[in-house]
Amino acid sequence: MSQAVTETLDVRELIPMIRHRTIFQVFDQLKPGEAFVLINDHDPKPLYYQFLHERTDQFSWEYLEEGPEDWRVRIGRVEAS
After folding, report:
1. At 27, phi and psi to the nearest 5?
2. Residue 16 and residue 59: Cα distance in Å, rounded?
3. Average pLDDT of the residues in 33-60
4. What does the pLDDT look like over 8-42, one tens digit per residue?
5. 28-52: b or e for each residue (b if 16 or more CB lie within 10 Å)?
6. Is pLDDT above 70 for 7?
7. In the chain, N or C: fewer CB atoms in 10 Å?
8. C-alpha count within 13 angstroms, C-beta hemisphere, residue 38
9. Are 59 and 43 in contact (CB under 8 A)?
10. Residue 58, C-beta contacts closer than 8 angstroms, at least 6 positions apart
């Protein structure tokens, strides 16, 4: 089941210190079944592990583009089970 993309969040121009906080703010506003596309200038693997720790079983993660210059990831809020 594909989740409805509600927005695209490009964090390439944000200072690194506020990137994750901004991403989690966008995620926390999603309703179940919604998603956003994250655009980043590096592989956001550390963010994935932060989601695993802080939003366990609440998110989906799908790479749409994997570098070398831009990474795009669809991050969605999953239905509660």
Report:
1. -60, -45
2. 22
3. 96
4. 999 999 999 999 999 999 999 999 999 999 999 99
5. eebeeeebbbbbbeeebeebeeebe
6. yes
7. C
8. 29
9. no
10. 77, 78
Q: Which CATH superfamily is domain 4-77 in?
A: TusA-like domain (3.30.110.40)
Q: Helix, strand, or coil here: 1?
A: coil
User: Would you kindly state where each structural domain of the chain is located, as residue ranges?
Assistant: 4-77
Residue linked to tokens 């990137």: 19
In this structure, what are the phi and psi dihedrals at residue 48, rounded to the nearest 5 degrees?
-55, -45
pLDDT category at 80 given cuts 50, 70, 90 is confident
Q: What is the rounded CA–CA span in Å between residue 68 and residue 79?
A: 32
Structure tokens that stand for 36 in this block: 């956003």
**77 — phi, psi (to 5°)?**
-95, 125
- Whole-model pTM above 0.70? yes
β-sheet bridge partners, residue 10: 39
